């Protein structure tokens, strides 16, 4: 049975057990009554209606959802379930496309650090270089990463890029991984960015 994350236009399908695990994780970390109602209703209907989330709470709910998705990818819960990993990656990519501004505010501490850092412009160039050399084959994913970099959302772009690399079938060379690791450390996103790469990392 499949669950649904529904947007105003379009949707992302997800296997029900994965959906229940993610929404339950979001419920457990939510303290606002509105956020908890959103989670409870989603579990009952097996659907998260994103556009029905009250506007004043949408940023908090989506930010919490992004954190839960990131933690799921870092856990070993889906090691033998590539479908779940793909669907989580797909949802993250869709969230970036639709709600980049909200997610950027969720990652505001990283964003503020980058804006204050003289090397921010250099990091943009490095991320784009790594994207060009990456095994990512989907043109739309490459385009989304470029758009995020152009908008100044470097940390978000880098995490998404690493997530899609980790989902791929091609192993990455040690030298390339070390370059990714250096950028992740510079942006203080080591766990979120490098965790998904362990499956395709060559020793």
Tell me what the structure shows.
- The structure is a single chain.
- The protein is 69% helix and 6% strand.
- Helix 3 (55-74) crosses helix 4 (82-106) and helix 6 packs antiparallel against helix 7.
- Strand 1 (2-6) and strand 2 (11-15) form a beta hairpin.
- The chain is built from 10 helices and 3 strands; from the N terminus they run ββααβαααααααα.
- The longest helix has 25 residues, at 82-106.
- It has 2 domains: 1-100, no CATH class; 107-203, no CATH class.
- The mean pLDDT is 83.
SS-derived structural category = mainly alpha
Q: Into how many domains do the coordinates divide?
A: 2
The number of helical elements comes to 10
Strand order of the largest sheet: 2-1-3
Q: Judging from the principal axes of the Cα atoms, what is the shape?
A: globular
Summarize the structure.
This protein is mainly alpha-helical and 203 residues long. The chain contains 10 helices and 3 strands, in the order ββααβαααααααα.
